[in-house]
Amino acid sequence: MMVKVIGLMELGDLSAFEQYRSQVGQTVELYKGSIKNRGSVAELFWNELGSAPFNTFVELEFPSTQDAHTWANSPEYQALVPIRSKAMKLTLFSITT
């Protein structure tokens, strides 16, 4: 079953973000995933859950939950975490449809 991984981001260091962005796609592809959508949040209509602020998002797709989990914990992706931490605050979760 296909699984989507959604990232909600509050960007900070734009230089670090560009560095992260230029490398993260390769790690996704290495684990059979693809970037389906990315963009800026145009308007937040409700925030009844009190989510932390975010201004951009990404939608990834993987063939299975296991592939998504393997990618998120892979050494290739984990090597980008220090850059990611400089670039943004991130909420990352998977959904099945």
Note down, in words, how this protein is organized.
The protein has helices at residues 14-30, 65-72, 75-78, 81-87; strands spanning 3-11, 34-40, 56-62, 88-96. The chain is α+β, with helices and mostly antiparallel strands and 97 residues long. The protein has a single domain (3-40, 54-96), classed as Alpha-Beta Plaits. It is globular and about 35 Å long. The relative contact order is 0.37.
| H/E element sequence | EHEEHHHE
Strand content: 25-35%
Termini separation: 8 Å
Residues in helices, as a percent range? 25-40%
Brief characterization of the structure:
The protein is an alpha+beta fold. The chain is 37% helix and 33% strand. The protein has four helices and four strands.
Q: Helix and strand layout, with pairings?
A:
Blueprint: E1 3-11, H1 14-30, E2 34-40, E3 56-62, H2 65-72, H3 75-78, H4 81-87, E4 88-96
Antiparallel strand pairs: 1-3, 1-4, 2-3
List the keywords.
about 100 residues, about 35% helix, alpha+beta, four-stranded antiparallel sheet, globular, Alpha-Beta Plaits, 4 strands
